[in-house]
C-alpha cells in the first residue's frame, strides 16, 4: 500500500490535540486511507474551510 502524503516539515506548526467521537474518528481514518492524506492534513483543510466560512458570516449584536 502506498504511503500517505505528509508535510515535509513541522516547522512553523503548533501541535494540539482534540477529542473526537469514535464514529467521527473512524470516518477520518477511512478518508485518510482513501485520499492518501494523513489525518492532520484533512483536519487542517477542514478547519481552514470552516474558519473561512465562519469569518464571512455577519455577526449578531456587533458594534454599531
Helix content: 40-55%
**What proportion strand?**
under 5%
For the terminal residues, how far apart are their CA atoms?
Answer: 57 Å
Unreliable stretches:
none
**Main sheet specs:** none
Rg value: 16 Å
**Topology as H/E string?**
HH
Judging from the principal axes of the Cα atoms, what is the shape?
extended
Blueprint (SSEs and pairs):
Elements: H1 22-35, H2 39-56
Descriptive notes:
The chain is mainly alpha-helical and 64 residues long. The protein has a domain at 23-56. Helix content is 50%, strand content 0%. It is built from 2 helices and no strands. It has helices at residues 22-35, 39-56. The longest helix is centred in the C-terminal third of the chain and has 18 residues, at 39-56. The model has no long low-confidence stretch (mean pLDDT 88).
What characteristics describe this protein?
single chain, 64 residues, mainly alpha, 2 helices
Briefly summarize what is shown.
The chain is 50% helix and 0% strand.
